[in-house]
Amino acid sequence: MSRPRSPAVSAAVRQGAGVAVATGLYGISFGALAVVAGLSVAQTAVLSLLLFSGGSQFALIGVVAAGGTPLAAVTTSSLLGVRNTLYGAVVSPLLGLRGWRRWAAAHLTIDESTAVAVAQRDPRAVRAGFWATGLGVFVLWNACTLLGALAGDALGDPRAWGLDAAAGAAFLALVWPRLATRSGRLVAGLAVLVAAALVPVAPAGVPVLAAAAAAVVVGLLSPAPGTRTGGDR
Amino acid sequence: MTPAAVWLTVIVASVVSLGLKLAGHYVPQHWLATDRVQRTSVLVTVALLVALVVVQTFADGTALVVDARLPALAVAAVALALRAPFVLVIVLAAATAAGLRALGWG
């Protein structure tokens, strides 16, 4: 086991560390926003430990903040988590794990760990990149969540600090790279229309779910393109 | 939501999240390898996130309103177009809204 690291493995670990720091830092904003949304510090910390998927976590606290039902919050969060199923199917054969290690890898299967893993060519670098990113993000995301939750608790009126606007900006940043494709932009436009039309007439949480349902219909009905365009990780 | 309801939400959502991740690791790969499934999953993610942007920016209860959150979102979009890092985007958006409100608007 004391083989010197190949340059490819070292590069993968460095990439993972960089991604982990960037992602971890935004755990601070998640922690602060979660407390502002009405979660306790303990609930916020447990959410980051157990759910561990940024988009789903932001969505869950968004529905809670808007006064939605638990069912709407769980459904919205879970629909956003469906992409992790695809990621799992992609990285599982690359990692080749059994038993508890496979469960640990599953828990760490998120946008960032998948992206770094699949960007490597060397099989050992794939594994190193996955674990370095997954574990790095896990440690920093949870530490920063706690920090942000404690800070958010002490801030007072969140609107005075613009934290309500920060939540919208966070979602925009998450979706930004996915707007690079034409189909992404078309569905984004559709989602704006559906959500805006339903906010005045539907209970909290429903506008977001309806936009997702519209995307499912588009995805199932639209003709398959000749070749899949890259760029959607 | 009551604290108990929030706990229930947190725990159930976490269990579902791990279940979805495990499904990917254990389900035979070819089940998910179809183009249509992958394409639809990408589109659903986009729709959910965009709808959340709309709700977080324009909703005030069940009313659609324009307030300091809209210029904040515009600033975030410009920052993203200039490839600013995530944290900077968030801070700029919050600062924009906070600044406008300090000036008495929105």
TrEMBL record, chain A:
Organism: Isoptericola sediminis
InterPro entries, sorted: Brnchd-chn_aa_trnsp_permease
Domain of life: Bacteria
Alphabetical list of Pfam families matching this protein: AzlC
Bilayer topology: Multi-pass membrane protein
UniProt protein name: AzlC family ABC transporter permease
Family: Belongs to the AzlC family.
The entry's keywords: Cell membrane, Membrane, Transmembrane, Transmembrane helix, Transport
Compartment(s) of residence: Cell membrane
GO cellular component, one term: plasma membrane
UniProt keyword Protease, yes or no: no
UniProtKB/TrEMBL annotation, chain B:
Matching Pfam families: AzlD
Record carries keyword Transmembrane: yes
Superkingdom in the source lineage: Bacteria
Protein name: AzlD domain-containing protein
TM helices/strands, residue ranges: 6-28, 40-59, 71-100
Entry-linked InterPro entries: Brnchd-chn_aa_trnsp_AzlD (IPR008407)
Keywords: Membrane, Transmembrane, Transmembrane helix
